[in-house]
Amino acid sequence: MATQLLASLVDGLLIGFVYGVAAMGLTLIWGVMRVINLAHGAIMALGMFGLYFLFTGLGLNPYLALPLVAVAGLLSGILMYTLAVQRVINAPYLSTLLATFSVNMMLIGVGTAVYSTSPYNVDFGLGSLALGPLTLPYSRLVAAGVAVGVAGALYFFLYRTAPGKAIRAVANNRSAAELMGIPSNRVLALSFGLGVMLAAVAGGLIATFFPFTILSGNAYQLNSFVISVLGGLGNPLGALIGGLILGLLEGLVSVFLPVNWTPVIEFGLFVLILLVRPSGLFGARR
Amino acid sequence: MSRKLSSLLSLLAIASLLAACAAPATPTTAPATQPPAATAEEPQATVPAPKTLVIGFTASQTGSQNVASTGQLKGLQLWMQQVNDAGGIKLADGTLLTFEAKFYDDESNKDRVQELYTKLSTEDNADYLISPYSSGLADAAAVIAEQYGKIMITTGAASEGTYQKGYTLVYQAYTAAGHYLTGAADLLASLDPSAKKIAIVHENDKFSTDVCNALKAYAESQGYEVVLFEGYDTGATDFAPFINKIVAAAPDAIMGGGHFADGSTFAKQLFDKGVQAKFISLLVAPPEPKFAELGDAAFGIVGPSQWEPLVGYSPEAAQAAGVEFYGLTVAEFVSAYKAAYDADPSYHGAGGYAAGLILQRAIEAAGSYETDKVSAALDAIDMMSFFGRTKFDTSAENHGLQIAHDMVYVQWQTDAAGALVKQVVWPEAGKSADTLYPLH
Question: Which of A72, A121, A269, B44 is the most exposed place for a label (fewest CB within 10 A)?
């Protein structure tokens, strides 16, 4: 039992890092501009497909393809903000929700038409690391390492660079930031691009060890909601920690209950956090 | 603020769940038709006019059942092309029958299946129906077939439940689900009488659940201990939680799986996690030639198959069994399939062809294409073809259930050059190689 518990918790922890990166994208966008990006799951799926085509089409190592997926995600996010979000950024929540939901439906619709809903698989293995009673696929270890690197890079960007500080300033008080000469619209576009980039990178990482379809992002989007609430909406570090908590929870639940109970427990936690501590375990930080 | 946010997030969660449940509709494909061979001469006054019969069906050209369904579609299309190229079926009264296909993409989705089979039955006026691939989809289609009085030959659909609902026009080409993995338990017993612990992890769909419930009951009756019995959702991609449970239960054998996508992922993750089982047998995925793309992860995996190119069904075997042999031989089917598609046929492809062949035999035996006469001919059918035996239960409780067809079991092994090859390892009488055992 102890070995099973350890193996489950380690597996949960490793996948939790990737969950965390995905949720960081969602929570960053909310934190800066109060927009919930309902195209988050679709973007993750496109990240999976991006990595797949770079791997199969150009023969790129999946991990070398990941920066290209990130850049494509950043540019797509900026484009998406410019076309769909910018005009309704100051409207009530429902308008931005509908705008991103529309983008989601378009992406899923086009993706289904082009790629169908058939499963795709990045046929790339790194082998496994035997560590006592544990056998850990290197792909998951690398994904966790990349996730930590991405989180670190995001923090460096937000706290140590001028554009990052501008993002935090706009998140704190957009009017005041504008008065200080910060071009808030460009900053918002950059923030949205970063959020989408994180979703695409998370999707790319998932594609390195799980098969996927154009609809695969849905489940991870739901996870991202739970994680964002758990970690505190608007707090990227909280999202990363929330991802780890959710991953550990999945590992823990599967030891003692049938695996199908996992979503029940997760969404039970989601409702509980909303009722008891709506600001999340770590509150919102800017 | 927090109350607003709470309400908003609750709405969002509900909306996302709804969006996740509602897969986007894909435009249906244009029906592919096989135009009948043109008859050069005007029919004589005494010769009935030729007739083109419409065969309606759906195929999962997209979605999780895509791989197996595509094989099934190819097999069925090959049958139709061959019959039409040969001039069709000539009835005793001189009527020449040819066939035309009407089919759509069901997206591996039950709701789409029911919409499309209704359309096939009403708007397209299909004369006969062939089932979609998979038990769940076929079950959804069968109720429509019965409702509109259409004969349906099911293929790629093994669950018994569909034939226990009082239907009278639905006929099963495949061996029933209850027999899918029981042979794997027999094979294990023949290899290692000391192996006693089995872990069963299966997809939570109708077919896989039926198969594994039957396996569990059979295995326990044979003295096995089922140390893990758990289902996973259709579309599951992360098997780590199940694999950790399997490792903790330390079974001698792992059995279960579901369909191609999840089964191949399960096999790959069992390999990646270095699971030390002596014997692994999974549903549906291993007999597919595409399974070999898993490389080392495919090695040693056993899978039940409805048919393999190495099976020994022949006119001689039919004679020995006291039944007629109908249609082309195994070698002829394999050769025709390879010529048409430049690929080896899987049992799904063979099943697609067999569905058409069974219908063809029934029409010939009936001497008519009228539903009641063809149905009576299907009730009476008892034959062997390249696909194996075909005979249907005609009792009220199990009408249309397949009762004569047998399974074979394949295992991925390596040839002298180290390439993965599929070998038939069970039943003993028909095997092409010994089972590699234990795997670890």
Answer: B44
Tell whether B2 lies on the interface with A, counting CB pairs under 8 A: yes
Residue B272 pLDDT level (bands cut at 50, 70, 90) = confident
Contact A278 B5 (CB under 8 A): yes
Going B68 to B392 to B104 to B107, the CA torsion angle's sign is negative
Domains identified in chain B, total number: 2
Between chain A and chain B, the number of residue pairs with CB atoms below 8 A apart is: 131
With an 8 Å Cβ cutoff, are A137 and B273 in contact? Answer: yes
Question: Is residue B35 domain-resident?
Answer: no
Percent of chain A topping pLDDT 70: 99
| Facing residue for A8 by CB, picked from B107, B237, B241 | B241
B8 contact residues in A (CB cutoff 8 A): 36, 93
| ipTM of the modeled complex | 0.81
Nearest to A123 among B19, B248, B293 (CB): B293
* Residue of chain A whose alpha carbon sits nearest to that of B5: A278
* Each residue's pLDDT tens digit, B358-376: 999 999 999 999 999 999 9
pLDDT digits (tens, 9 = 90+) for B111-139: 999 999 999 999 999 999 999 999 999 99
- B320 touching chain A per CB within 8 A: no
The CATH number of residue B365's host domain is 3.40.50.2300
If asked whether residues B423 and B300 sit together in one domain, one would say: yes
Name every residue whose Cβ is closer than 8 Å to that of residue B61 and which is 6 or more positions away in sequence: A116, B29, B69, B70, B73, B105, B107
All structural domains of chain A, each given as residue ranges with its CATH number in brackets, are: 2-108+137-276 (1.10.3470)
Q: Is B370 contained in some domain? A: yes
The pLDDT confidence band at residue B28, using thresholds 50, 70 and 90, is: very low
d(CA A256, CA B294): 31
CA distance A174 to A188: 10
| Cα–Cα distance for residue pair A32/A164, rounded to 1 Å | 11
Residues B364, B416, single domain; the answer is no
- Asked if A225 and B248 come within 8 Å (Cβ–Cβ), the reply is no
* Residue of A118, A135, A205, A276 to mutate for B, most B C-beta atoms under 10 A: A118
Is position B377 within any domain? Answer: yes
Do B359 and B231 lie in a common domain? no
Residue B183 and residue B171 in one domain = no
Answer yes or no: do B68 and B136 share one domain. Answer: yes
Digit-coded pLDDT (tens) for A125-153: 788 888 888 888 898 999 999 999 999 99
> Tokens in use for B340?
């048409």
Residues B282 and B415 in one domain: yes
CA distance B110 to A213: 18
For residues B347 and B388, what is the distance between their CA atoms, to the nearest angstrom?
11
Residue B387: which domain range?
51-175+313-391
Dihedral (CA of A148, A111, A234, A251) sign: negative
Residues A24-57: pLDDT tens digits? 999 999 989 889 999 999 999 999 999 999 999 9
CB contact under 8 A, A118 and B63: yes
Closest chain B C-alpha to A100 CA, distance in angstroms: 12
Are residues B209 and B289 located together in one domain of the fold? yes
| B105 & B138 share domain | yes
For chain A, residues with pLDDT lower than 50 are 285-286
Cβ atoms of residues B279 and B257 within 8 Å:
no
Is residue B197 in some structural domain? Answer: yes
- Chain A residues with CB under 8 Å of B10 CB are 271, 274
